[in-house]
């Protein structure tokens, strides 16, 4: 049977992309390694708002079309769950503006293959206090959690679309979040220079790993962070240092596995 | 101006090649970090850089097709690419024509119906020009599209051939090209040996056409071997890195 990445010619299944073959019983598909994001329902993605339209936002999630975030699939401010009102439609830019970064979940597909997102959980929403990194989507694997707090006091959100958000740690108690603040545009005030350096360092570690095309998860990021501590932050963009950090991190992971 | 001797008495060409010999080909993919797919290709001294972006959200709403992706090709020739420094305008008719050749060549090969409402941008940059720009552009585009993981039914391999003095020869360089040689560029799908592009701007005797075509076809097959090796090596390399 013909899966993704193949086509049929003369009753034979032929690959249409360069990649690795996946076989599930009789279904044969070819997965390209270096390509844009192809999503599944339930994926956690990081995206950037590109357009505010009628009752919806367009979000760039590095897929082949912009994803759509409906006004009805976000948590409206005001505490209690409520239906959207006309006033919400008129002040959509006060929730998300063009250029804002959001973390969301893929909720459904539209007929043409575009994704519909939702942010109806306090985990999701606008991103603040950090910096953005883009890596090839194939490097981020599906796992139990995509929200990680690293030991160095940095939070990382690994979007399955290869967009990664590295931010200062914000203690979260999901019961006590002020819903008014979910859409605020202000960074928290007490981000120390040390926090900033950690964010930059973790960001550079992720870049170093992506440069070597190594899978990115919280374990390897922590190891890469430890490996990077012997270098100055400003040297971390040098090719040979990036390579050294990535190698050291992979060996550490291998040792841990035994 | 006395015409240069293009074919030596021993049957060697001006750069020492035999008539059916390609120039040295160097190719790499994934040379740009920002692009979804990219390739750098050298045919001897002809050097081309191809970048593919997409499939991505189409920029012009009016052009969007609801059942397939649109291809957009832009070609740029660096001012320092030729012996004489010359800046070409973006609307140079020859460049636009060449870009549309590339576009037409790839439209039947890219499975665009898999990517409705999107756009695939192909940007080509000629860094050095030493004959055979069109073939280099097509070959580089093939590799960049494959690197971007875009579904295609086959490779597209292009090769030029021409009638140099008394013999058919392939992969003409700039001197051969510019000294009044009739030249044919063909683009071929190596799996089925179908031809998706034939381009000729000068006159060629019909008796010689078959020989020139045969030779160009053989050149395409050789091109395919080189490109396929680069692509496979790259895919294996990535798969190995990810297996760690």
TrEMBL record, chain A:
This is Exosome non-catalytic core subunit rrp4. GO terms for biological process: CUT catabolic process; exonucleolytic trimming to generate mature 3'-end of 5.8S rRNA from tricistronic rRNA transcript (SSU-rRNA, 5.8S rRNA, LSU-rRNA); nuclear mRNA surveillance; nuclear polyadenylation-dependent rRNA catabolic process; poly(A)-dependent snoRNA 3'-end processing; TRAMP-dependent tRNA surveillance pathway; U4 snRNA 3'-end processing. Residues 130-172 form the K Homology domain. Keywords: Exosome, Nucleus, RNA-binding, rRNA processing. Belongs to the RRP4 family. The keyword Transmembrane does not apply. InterPro entries: Exosome_cplx_N_dom (IPR025721), Exosome_RNA_bind1/RRP40/RRP4 (IPR026699), KH_dom_type_1 (IPR004088), KH_dom_type_1_sf (IPR036612), NA-bd_OB-fold (IPR012340), S1_RRP4 (IPR048565). It holds the Pfam family S1_RRP4. Residues 1-24 form the Exosome complex component N-terminal domain. SUPFAM superfamilies: Eukaryotic type KH-domain (KH-domain type I), Nucleic acid-binding proteins, Ribosomal L27 protein-like. Residues 36-107 form the RRP4 S1 domain. It is found in: Nucleus. One of its GO terms (cellular component) is nuclear exosome (RNase complex). GO terms for molecular function: RNA binding.
UniProtKB/TrEMBL annotation, chain B:
SUPFAM superfamilies: Ribonuclease PH domain 2-like (SSF55666), Ribosomal protein S5 domain 2-like (SSF54211). GO terms for biological process: exonucleolytic trimming to generate mature 3'-end of 5.8S rRNA from tricistronic rRNA transcript (SSU-rRNA, 5.8S rRNA, LSU-rRNA); nuclear mRNA surveillance of mRNA 3'-end processing; nuclear polyadenylation-dependent CUT catabolic process; nuclear-transcribed mRNA catabolic process, 3'-5' exonucleolytic nonsense-mediated decay; poly(A)-dependent snoRNA 3'-end processing; rRNA catabolic process; termination of RNA polymerase II transcription, exosome-dependent; TRAMP-dependent tRNA surveillance pathway. Keywords: Cytoplasm, Exosome, Ribonucleoprotein, Ribosomal protein. The keyword Transcription regulation does not apply. It comes from the Eukaryota. This is Ribosomal RNA-processing protein 41. One of its GO terms (cellular component) is ribosome. Belongs to the RNase PH family. GO terms for molecular function: RNA binding. Component of the RNA exosome complex. Specifically part of the catalytically inactive RNA exosome core complex (Exo-9) which may associate with the catalytic subunits RRP6 and DIS3 in cytoplasmic- and nuclear-specific RNA exosome complex forms. Exo-9 is formed by a hexameric base ring of RNase PH domain-containing subunits and a cap ring consisting of CSL4, RRP4 and RRP40. It comes from Linnemannia elongata AG-77. It is found in: Cytoplasm; Nucleus, Nucleolus. It holds the Pfam family RNase_PH_C. Residues 21-150, 154-218 form the Exoribonuclease phosphorolytic domain. InterPro entries: ExoRNase_PH_dom1 (IPR001247), ExoRNase_PH_dom2 (IPR015847), ExoRNase_PH_dom2_sf (IPR036345), PNPase/RNase_PH_dom_sf (IPR027408), Ribosomal_Su5_D2-typ_SF (IPR020568), RNase_PH (IPR050080).
């Amino acid at each position: 049977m013909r899966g993704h990445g193949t086509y049929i010619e003369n009753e034979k299944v032929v690959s249409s992309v360069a990649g690795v073959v996946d076989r599930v019983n009789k279904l044969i598909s070819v997965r390209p390694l270096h390509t844009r994001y192809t999503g599944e329902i339930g994926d956690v993605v990081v995206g950037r708002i590109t357009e505010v339209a009628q009752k919806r936002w367009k979000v760039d999630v590095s897929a082949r079309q912009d994803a759509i975030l409906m006004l009805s699939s976000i948590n409206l401010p005001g505490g209690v769950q409520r239906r959207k009102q006309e006033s919400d439609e008129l002040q959509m830019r006060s929730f998300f503006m063009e250029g804002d970064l959001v973390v969301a979940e893929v909720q459904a597909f539209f007929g043409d293959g575009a994704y519909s997102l939702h942010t109806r959980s306090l985990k999701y929403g606008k991103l603040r206090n950090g910096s953005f990194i883009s890596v090839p989507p194939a490097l981020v694997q599906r796992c139990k959690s995509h929200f990680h707090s690293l030991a160095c006091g940095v939070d990382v959100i690994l979007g399955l679309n290869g967009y990664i958000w590295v931010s200062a740690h914000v203690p979260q108690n999901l019961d006590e979040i002020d819903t008014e603040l979910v859409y605020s545009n202000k960074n928290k005030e007490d981000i120390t220079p040390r926090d900033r350096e950690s964010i930059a360092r973790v960001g550079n570690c992720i870049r170093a790993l992506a440069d070597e095309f190594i899978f990115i998860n919280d374990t390897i990021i922590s190891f890469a962070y430890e490996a990077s501590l012997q270098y100055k932050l400003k040297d971390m963009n040098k090719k040979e240092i990036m390579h050294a950090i990535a190698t050291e991190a992979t060996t550490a992971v291998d040792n841990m596995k035994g | 101006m006395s015409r240069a001797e293009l074919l030596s008495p021993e049957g060697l060409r001006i750069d020492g090649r035999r008539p059916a010999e390609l120039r040295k080909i160097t190719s790499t993919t994934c040379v740009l970090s920002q692009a979804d797919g990219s390739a750098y290709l050298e045919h001897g001294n002809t050097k081309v850089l191809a970048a593919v972006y997409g499939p991505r959200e189409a920029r012009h709403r009016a052009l969007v097709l609801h059942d397939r992706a649109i291809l957009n090709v832009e070609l740029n020739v660096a001012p320092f690419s030729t012996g004489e420094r010359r800046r070409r305008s973006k609307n140079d008719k020859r460049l636009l024509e060449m870009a549309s050749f590339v576009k037409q060549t790839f439209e039947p090969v890219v499975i665009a119906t898999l990517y409705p409402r999107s756009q695939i941008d192909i940007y080509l940059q000629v860094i050095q020009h030493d004959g055979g720009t069109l073939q280099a552009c097509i070959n580089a585009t093939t590799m960049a599209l494959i690197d971007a993981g875009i579904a295609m039914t086959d490779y597209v391999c292009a090769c030029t051939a021409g009638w140099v003095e008394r013999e058919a020869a392939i992969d003409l360089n700039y001197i051969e090209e510019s000294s009044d040689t009739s030249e044919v560029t063909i683009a071929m799908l190596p799996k089925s040996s179908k031809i998706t592009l034939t381009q000729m701007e000068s006159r060629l005797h019909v008796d010689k056409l078959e020989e020139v075509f045969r030779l160009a076809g053989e050149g395409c097959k050789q091109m395919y071997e080189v490109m396929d090796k680069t692509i496979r090596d790259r895919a294996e390399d990535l798969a190995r890195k990810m297996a760690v």
